[in-house]
Amino acid sequence: MIADPWFTVQTIDDHTYAISEYGHWESVHSFLLLGKEKAVLIDTGLGIANIKDVIDQLTMLPVEVITTHVHVDHIGSHGEFEQIYVHEKDKDWLVNGIEGLTIERIRQDISRDITLPTPNTFHPDTYTPYQGEPTGLLHDGDAIDLGNRRLIIHHTPGHSPGHICIFDQTNGYLFTGDLLYDQLPIYAFYPSTNPLDLVNSLEKITEIPNVTQVFGSHHTLGLHPTILDDVKHAVKYLRENDLVEFGTGVHRFNGFSIQF
Questions:
Q1: pTM of this prediction?
Q2: Can you give the residue ranges of every domain in the chain?
């Protein structure tokens, strides 16, 4: 058991952990995947607290960070790790920040609706998102070998240009980042998103075989793979009704919703 005032650590199996931030309105999940030779950390959370303090309690393996996409709530503790990977189409955001997203807006969003005490090191008025050069770039179809565990990278743009999903081929776990989760809408309604790409990406993940569980980066931890059948029907409905464009609003389906 890991006792931490900010992070909640949940065991998915003996070699897979979710590190969650339930004290923030976004309910962010990062995921630690242990292999025989190394570990992968999928995203590093909000940066309100240092996720590396938790990771160091869970493993002594060398850790590589795989970034689902470069939004503030997924790169918060990137600066604590030496090995950071991102899809090539999100690299510019990681290095230079997202154009048009002001620091005032970032600080406002990061500090609202917090329900747990935050560390003394967290100061909303001086909070600054990570910027830096990645160790390497990811591409669609890349395979990452952890020694006894194989991960496949799927480029799934729409929520961001370089958004990726990670499929743990060994266990059947599909980590969907902000492409698919429940409770609140999947966002594709602001200028840096692309509704058409998002719908194409949703269709793409329905074609991945042997998925045993779906793990989004927000809200409910672990969704039954039958949600992918619902996604397939949603894609068909959105296309047939010419709804895949900005301004068509919130579209609700069985277990999830999308906002364009």
A1: 0.96
A2: 8-182+210-223
